[in-house]
Specification:
Blueprint: E1 9-11, E2 21-28, H1 34-44, E3 46-53, H2 56-64, E4 73-77, H3 78-86, H4 106-112, E5 117-129, H5 141-144, E6 154-155, H6 165-171, H7 180-193, E7 197-199, H8 203-209, E8 219-223, H9 226-234, E9 240-243, E10 249-258, H10 265-275, H11 278-288, H12 303-306, H13 315-319, E11 321-322, H14 329-347
Helix pairs in contact: 7-14, 8-9
């Protein structure tokens, strides 16, 4: 785990810069489209501020820290939504206070549980530069055992779940395994991959930082939809593409949580309801390149987008997908030790 992580706060102002109130959202970078923020601020005169994180671990630390009381809304994954709810960190959300929850597919509603509301869903796969990688990678081995041309051009994720996922898939193990031998086998796989890795920084964060390393990134572990965000950041439509390997993938969903102790909880709930208005959900998802759990939003989307299998995978891929589940403390500790060791191996080269 890194000893320090920069958290970026973006203040989005109307032309006059005058607001009745503001909401602060703990979110992934480029995960709420400016057009949606503009529509909300125009309708309500409530400013949106975003605090960015780039790993689940960092987000969880912020939410668990007593000093995080200035956060009003957080984007969390389905595996921790119940845990934060039971700790009293987040408020219970249902159709009594989120009327647009009626538009959400029951599958995704169940995944996010009783405390949070589904936001976006997608898969985990391999993003690649189409000018450097001519054939879509069909196996996780393309990332784990890259050919000579890809040596030093691979990007991974510094996350105790997602860093291990490709190795666990190739080895035929469960994404959520607590078997020590299986996790150690994944560690050995990642250890031999480390010399080929350019960075463990989230690709979107790297792209936004304009760091010189981004120009050397040719293939990376991405969430489905990230490729569209990267192409928008770089102004090169279609350059980055996305593939889901044949061994299977993660079917993830992100959920919206209202912070229990927020003095602006009522407005936070109103904003979550706004995000689930079908036209807004469609605008947000299609503009960002992710799948929406909002059934009614689909009719507001273009035909081309609805048919994009990078966003809406085939049933065959869905049948080979796994979902996150809650991990026990010992499992998490071991996984963090593994990812920390991999980072140390990489940095000591």
């Amino acid at each position: 785990m890194k000893p320090f992580r920069l958290i970026v706060i973006i203040l989005l102002l109307t032309p006059l810069g005058v607001y009745a109130e503001s909401l602060r959202i703990l979110n992934w970078e480029d995960y709420l489209h400016p057009k949606v923020i503009e529509a909300w601020e125009h309708e309500t005169n409530v400013r949106i501020e975003e605090v960015y994180f780039d790993s689940d671990e960092v987000r969880d630390e912020i939410l668990n820290d007593a000093s995080s009381g200035n956060i009003d809304i957080a984007v969390v994954d389905e595996a921790v939504s119940e845990l934060f709810g039971e700790k009293g960190k987040i408020a219970k959300l249902d159709e009594a206070n989120i009327s647009n929850l009626r538009h959400i597919d029951p599958f995704w509603k169940k995944a996010c549980g009783q405390y949070t509301v589904p936001y976006m869903w997608g898969t985990l796969g391999i993003g690649y530069r189409s000018d450097k990688v001519k054939q879509p990678p069909i196996s996780w081995q393309a990332l784990l055992e890259p050919d000579q041309a890809m040596q030093g051009h691979i990007g991974m994720l510094d996350d105790y779940r997602d860093m291990l996922a490709p190795a666990l898939f190739v080895l035929g193990h469960s994404l959520n395994t607590d078997n020590e031998n299986e996790l150690k086998a994944a560690f050995e796989y990642l250890k031999q991959q480390a010399p080929a890795v350019l960075t463990y920084e989230y690709a979107i964060t790297l792209a936004n930082s304009q760091h010189e390393d981004f120009g050397q990134l040719h293939m990376a572990l991405l969430y489905g939809g990230d490729q569209h965000v990267i192409n928008e950041i770089t102004g090169k439509p279609g350059l980055w593409k996305y593939a889901v390997p044949h061994e299977g993938t993660i079917l993830w969903v992100d959920c919206l949580a209202a912070i229990q102790d927020s003095p602006r909880k009522e407005i936070a709930v109103q904003f979550i309801d706004f995000l689930n208005r079908p036209d807004i959900a469609a605008l947000n998802a299609e503009s960002l390149g992710f799948g929406t759990p909002n059934k009614s939003a689909v009719r507001h989307m273009s035909d081309a987008y609805r048919s994009d299998q990078a966003v809406f995978p085939s049933q065959d891929i869905l049948d080979r997908s796994q979902q996150y589940s809650v991990l026990d403390k010992n499992n998490i500790v071991l996984r963090k030790r593994i990812t920390g060791a991999i980072r140390q191996i990489h940095e000591s080269r």
